[in-house]
Design brief:
alpha/beta; 16-stranded mixed sheet
């Protein structure tokens, strides 16, 4: 700026009206406001004032704030309308801090330390609530959600339009419902109370999408859902019993008796009651056993055949833990459901060999998404038949030990394949070479984790000379013979890679780190890479790895990085250390990378 005498003068930030600065800051998100507050006392003062009248408080998805931080960032604010927070570091004692009467939109993730009181408080205080998302409430053993907690929230929040992960008698605007953890008896009791002599009452009849994680999937639960939710098109049920549930064999064999015992396991009789309205499009019933192997022992081919005959409009099905269903049942499913394009079976079905795929050519079925995870009897010829008669985009064969090079030769002809997961299969370097050409150029995600017969030479040959790949996620971990040559050949492809796992190989050295340093990786797994030395730490300093958010490492290097590099999540040897630049005054110490960080669920895209 030039003054009257022709001399240049500087306009200090403190000379600007605070009202202007605060007005500008209202256009920023919370993370940006916090970052500005760190630069000078003037902006820190403005940020503190802005937070008292900000109408939207959306904390970054990758950060789980502590109670001490939220106490500074969430002052009394009668204008606050929208709240979005990761509650991993919070518990029931903090509920009064985050729940404000003025809120109309609430999104709370990772609420596993909260019990049903959170829902009760929301219903009791937020009368104008219009949108609600509350994830993983009472997810820890011993915590409960009472029916009274659930009733409070929807009886009082009359303007609620969207509600996920809650349950109670609801308004007729409720069309989608998801509950992270709830006892099945509470669901049965609530649904049955909403069904009178003339059928389903209006307060639940509009629900089209239902997703529940319960203690036990029973015949009574399926019957209650079918009778009450007459508009249902999407159903997703999951349970995780600690032992094998009891089966009422008399009921299972008759299939026609009144289903009212909620303590008994799911049987063929329960599946016969499903989809009374005939509108079901997407179905997922999954059992994930804890400590002991448990499965749906009361369901066999007859149950799946009953289901297939009533679900002609089915487009997607996911079955986990149905160990007594064979190829006969699945073959009938394919014949009866011509619109089916997503098919997923997992959790130890040893009776499914894939023979059901041999007659796909006689039907109008066109599968595009197929997951056959942990099907130990699945054969190579089954995959050959599947590939010949399908237009696959996603194929998951993890932990199918009998799958080998013959299957990969057939898979190599798929030009539209986007996701291929081959963990712990019996493939070799020769089989991997079949992916060159059509497949490797179209893949977005590839996993060969735990394929012990692969070597660095096979990986190198797969990527040698290729360019313009679309690959974004690659898992080559737990391959003992993986070498720097394999990593180097991949790095030269310059693919838009964001997730790379190469842990578990002692042959990986600092050379691989240097080759990857200029990539746009967001997650890098180097756990148990014994050949990496402390000299490699220089490649993790800025400006290298500019977009890295999560690093899994072994040794003391990880600890130094967690302290010196901002916004980086570091995990090593089962421990975690977190760092972040976002703060109002001081350090913020909680970055969460759990959304897609688990190695088991990272590629479940459908």
């Amino acid at each position: 700026m030039t003054g009257g005498g022709g001399k240049k003068t500087k306009r200090r930030l403190e000379q600007l009206p605070l009202e202007i600065l605060e007005s500008i800051m209202t256009w920023l998100d919370v993370a940006s406001i916090c970052s500005l507050a760190c630069t000078c006392k003037t902006l820190e003062s403005c940020a503190s004032n802005v937070l008292t009248f900000l109408d939207k408080f959306h904390f970054p998805d990758h950060i789980a704030p502590t109670i001490e931080l939220l106490e500074r960032l969430l002052p009394l604010n009668p204008n606050l309308r929208s709240l979005k927070v990761d509650c991993e570091e919070l518990d029931c004692s903090n509920v009064d801090l985050i729940i404000k009467p003025s809120l109309q939109e609430i999104c709370l993730r990772n609420c596993f330390r909260f019990d049903g009181m959170l829902l009760y408080k929301i219903g009791n205080q937020c009368k104008d609530l219009r949108s609600l998302y509350v994830a993983s409430v009472a997810d820890r053993r011993g915590m409960k959600i009472l029916v009274t907690d659930l009733e409070e929230i929807l009886n009082n929040c009359t303007q609620l339009e969207l509600s996920t992960k809650i349950w109670a008698p609801a308004s007729d605007k409720l069309t989608s419902l998801e509950i992270g953890s709830i006892d099945s008896w509470a669901v049965v009791e609530t649904l049955n109370s909403n069904v009178g002599q003339e059928g389903s009452s209006s307060n639940v009849s509009c629900i089209k999408k239902l997703r529940l994680s319960v203690d036990l999937i029973s015949d009574a639960l399926i019957a209650a859902i079918s009778n009450a939710l007459i508009s249902l098109t999407d159903l997703d049920l999951r349970d995780a019993p600690y032992s094998q549930p009891i089966i009422d064999y008399d009921l299972a064999n008759s299939g026609l008796q009144q289903i009212d015992q909620i303590d008994y396991d799911l049987t063929n009789a329960g599946l016969r009651t499903l989809n009374c309205n005939g509108e079901l499009r997407r179905l997922s019933i999954v059992r994930i056993p804890k400590y002991r192997n448990s499965s749906f022992m009361g369901v066999n081919d007859a149950g799946l055949i009953f289901l297939a005959e009533k679900c002609k409009k089915l487009e997607s099905i996911c079955l986990g833990g149905f160990t007594h269903i064979t190829d006969v049942g699945f073959e009938r499913l394919f014949c009866s459901c011509p619109k089916l394009y997503k098919f997923r079976v997992f959790a130890g079905n040893s009776k499914f060999t894939g023979q059901a795929f041999r007659d796909l050519s006689t039907s109008s079925l066109s599968l595009t998404h197929v997951s056959l995870r942990k099907c130990s009897s699945l054969t190579n010829i089954a995959i050959v038949n599947l590939v010949e008669k399908s237009d696959l985009q996603i194929l998951d064969l993890r932990r199918c030990e009998r799958i080998g090079n013959t299957a990969l030769r057939a898979i190599g002809s798929l030009s539209k394949l986007k996701v291929l997961l081959l963990d712990d299969t019996n493939i070799t370097d020769k089989g991997l070479s079949f992916l060159r050409g059509r497949v490797i150029s179209s893949l977005v995600s590839l996993s060969v984790r735990g394929c012990k017969q692969l070597t660095g030479k096979g990986i190198s040959n797969l990527f040698e000379g290729l360019s313009k790949l679309e690959l974004q996620r690659l898992d080559m971990s737990d391959i003992p013979e993986l070498t720097d040559d394999g990593v180097l050949s991949f790095a030269k492809c310059h693919s838009p890679i964001t997730v790379l796992r190469i842990g578990g190989s002692s042959l990986i050295t600092d050379i691989s780190i240097e080759a990857l340093a200029h990539s746009d990786l967001q997650l890098l797994d180097l756990y148990h890479c014994g050949g990496i030395t402390e000299l490699a730490s220089q490649w993790f300093e800025k400006p290298y790895f500019p977009k890295l958010k999560s690093l899994c490492f072994s040794g003391s290097i990880g600890a130094d990085l967690a302290i010196n590099r901002q916004k980086l999540y570091v995990g090593w040897c089962g421990c975690e250390q977190r760092s972040s630049a976002l703060n109002l005054s001081g350090n913020l110490d909680s970055i969460d990378f759990s959304d897609f960080g688990t190695k088991d669920e990272e590629y479940l895209l459908f």
